[in-house]
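R.M. (postdoc): so does anyone remember the format we settled on? I'll just put the structure tokens first.
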């Protein structure tokens, strides 16, 4: 609410990691009197088309969406992207913020983080070769911390909750040739297992394969849960890679 009131976007896409999270945030903003539309994979095709047409036509100003559902939204009027949930890989971050500032227009991207997500933010900065400035309502760097969620660049890092836990690499028998992107891999894991965003690391999509790392003690379960599911009309097959 603070970000939206201060930024006053002409049109904004607010990215949330899960379908449940999209509905929850849309409901809370709606209860606060903010008109928003939700967009995620559990909606019917007709519902999704209706939302996208209204947003592209400028009749809706705020869209709360998952990465997969927002795919294909190529709109020149999006003035802001808000990462309510920090993306789990730098590639997804770059893809998200690319939705604003199109056709020579300026755009702004705001990322909200919790204190434990500072390391993820630093990884994004290194990947994008940029420094993400702290956000404040008046446009000047904010020096005091918000105990719940913050939008400032971290100066110090805390141990990641999974530090010290062994990770295993899984291979997915689908890649760019099938239209698969990093966000698809993340969603396939998170939506079909009990893992959280912070548990999924190092997503890499190649031409015909994709790789992802998850906690080693859950790797076999993840491979079994994701195999057989479909993304973009492609039936997925995932295996744990063998150590050399």
């Amino acid at each position: 609410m603070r970000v939206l009131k201060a930024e006053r976007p002409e049109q904004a896409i607010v990215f949330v990691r899960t379908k449940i999270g999209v509905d929850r945030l849309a409901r809370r903003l709606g209860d606060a009197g903010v008109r928003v539309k939700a967009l995620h994979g559990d909606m019917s095709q007709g519902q999704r088309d209706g939302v996208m047409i209204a947003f592209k036509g400028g009749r809706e100003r705020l869209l709360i969406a998952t990465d997969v559902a927002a795919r294909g939204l190529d709109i020149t009027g999006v003035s802001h992207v808000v990462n309510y949930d920090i993306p789990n890989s730098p590639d997804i971050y770059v893809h998200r913020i690319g939705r604003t500032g199109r056709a020579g227009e300026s755009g702004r991207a705001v990322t909200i983080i919790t204190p434990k997500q500072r390391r993820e933010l630093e990884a994004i900065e290194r990947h994008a070769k940029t420094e993400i400035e702290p956000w404040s309502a008046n446009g000047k760097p904010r020096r005091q911390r918000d105990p719940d969620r913050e939008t400032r660049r971290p100066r110090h890092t805390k141990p990641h909750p999974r530090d010290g836990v062994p990770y295993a690499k899984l291979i997915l028998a689908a890649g760019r040739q099938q239209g698969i992107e990093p966000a698809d891999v993340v969603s396939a894991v998170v939506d079909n297992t009990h893992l959280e965003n912070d548990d999924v690391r190092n997503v890499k999509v190649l031409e015909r394969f994709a790789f992802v790392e998850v906690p080693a003690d859950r790797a076999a379960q993840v491979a079994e849960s994701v195999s057989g599911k479909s993304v973009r009309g492609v039936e997925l097959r995932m295996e744990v890679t063998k150590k050399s």
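R.M.: ...and that's the designed sequence above, right after the tokens. Also worth knowing: DSSP finds seven helices and eleven strands in the chain. The domain at 167-240 is CATH 3.30.70.330 (Alpha-Beta Plaits).
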